[in-house]
């Protein structure tokens, strides 16, 4: 679903035309409290010329600050030249739960990132600083952009739920609801012994799942899910048989 969009790019007259190819999308935070309107941040940036992004995402809307063909003042280094930059009107010090409590805002940002990924052939995967330096394409952060120097920023913070965010991006790219959560629930239902790692699930998790470190973001197709589910079911039956003899 397309979020509410406000286009202010005509108001931002600093920066310059893009000359480099787009490599990555960078996630930022504006260091404002949740609920602060994106317009407040944009007006401050216009007035002080202390920075800019391609867009801002608050809890209600997406505000376009600059077009994709324009270099923004976002990372203070090469990241400006090779990146597309989106900043959440939020704080890097937020806890993981605070981020997850604002899924609507994350989804607004994910929608825009999905448009970029499709338009510029950017994989919806996280890339680290060293990978950025090697030219790897993907989704990264201001923190990782420190690999190029001239910045000490750490946003969007260590608790930003990157994997959940990227799943939202992939969902917007495909237009389909993610199947990972349902698949993982099926795995956990095989033998209910430990609490599931699937957010919002009360289903429990068996020891073999924990040992295999199953991640719900890794399962891309139903066929893979069926094959793994069958394999785990056989292991579960064998474990039950052994336990029954002891």
Characterize the structure shown.
With 246 residues, this protein is an alpha/beta fold. The chain folds into 2 domains: 5-174, Lysozyme-like (3-Layer(aba) Sandwich), CATH 3.40.80.10; 180-245, no CATH class. 39% of the residues lie in helices and 13% in strands. It contains 9 helices and 10 strands. The strands form 3 sheets. It has a 6-stranded mixed beta sheet with strand order 1-5-4-7-3-8, sandwiched between helices. It has a two-stranded antiparallel ribbon with strand order 2-6. The chain has a two-stranded antiparallel ribbon with strand order 9-10. The protein is globular, with a radius of gyration of 21 Å. Residues 178-222 have low confidence and may be disordered.
Task: Detail the topology: elements first, then pairings.
Blueprint: E1 5-7, E2 16-17, E3 24-29, H1 38-48, E4 55-57, E5 62-64, E6 70-71, H2 78-82, E7 83-88, H3 96-100, H4 103-120, H5 129-133, E8 138-141, H6 162-174, H7 180-189, E9 194-195, E10 204-205, H8 207-212, H9 222-245
Parallel strand pairs: 1-5, 3-7, 3-8, 4-7
Antiparallel strand pairs: 2-6, 4-5, 9-10
Helix pairs in contact: 4-6
Arithmetic mean pLDDT: 83
Strand arrangement within the widest β-sheet reads 1-5-4-7-3-8
Rg (CA only): 21 Å
Shape: globular
Instruction: Please provide the count of β strands.
Output: 10
**Helix- and strand-based class?**
alpha/beta
| Helix and strand run | EEEHEEEHEHHHEHHEEHH
- Please state roughly what percent of the residues sit in beta strands, choosing from under 5%, 5-15%, 15-25%, 25-35%, 35-45% or over 45%: 5-15%
CATH class of the largest domain: Alpha Beta
CATH architecture type of the largest domain: 3-Layer(aba) Sandwich
* Sheet with the most strands, sense and barrel status: 6 strands, mixed
Q: Can you count the helices?
A: 9
**The CATH topology of the largest domain is what?**
Lysozyme-like
- Stretches where pLDDT is under 50 for at least 5 consecutive residues are 178-222
Provide the helix percentage.
25-40%
Domains (count): 2
CATH homology superfamily of the largest domain: Peptidoglycan recognition protein-like
Distance between the termini: 55 Å
């Amino acid at each position: 679903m397309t979020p509410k969009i406000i286009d202010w790019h005509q108001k931002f007259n600093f920066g310059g035309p893009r000359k480099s190819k787009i490599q990555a999308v960078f996630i930022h935070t504006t260091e404002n409290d949740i609920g602060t309107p994106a317009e407040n941040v944009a007006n401050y940036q216009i007035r002080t010329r202390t920075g800019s992004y391609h867009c801002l995402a608050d809890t209600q809307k997406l505000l376009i600050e600059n077009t994709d063909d324009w270099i923004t003042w976002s990372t203070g280094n090469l990241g400006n030249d090779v990146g597309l930059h989106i900043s959440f009107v939020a704080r890097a010090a937020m806890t993981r739960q605070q981020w997850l409590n604002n899924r609507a805002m994350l989804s607004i940002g994910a929608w825009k990132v999905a448009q970029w990924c499709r338009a510029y052939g950017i994989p919806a995967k996280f890339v680290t600083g060293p990978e950025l330096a090697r030219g790897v394409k993907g989704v990264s952060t201001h923190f990782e952009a420190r690999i190029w120097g001239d910045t000490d920023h750490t946003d969007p913070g260590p608790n930003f739920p990157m994997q959940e965010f990227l799943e939202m991006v992939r969902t917007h790219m495909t237009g389909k609801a993610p199947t990972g959560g349902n698949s993982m629930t099926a795995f956990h239902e095989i033998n209910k012994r430990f609490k599931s790692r699937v957010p919002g699930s009360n289903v429990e998790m068996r020891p073999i799942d924990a040992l295999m470190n199953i991640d719900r973001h890794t399962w891309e197709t139903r066929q893979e899910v069926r094959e793994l589910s069958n394999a785990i079911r056989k292991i579960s039956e064998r474990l039950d048989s052994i336990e029954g003899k002891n």
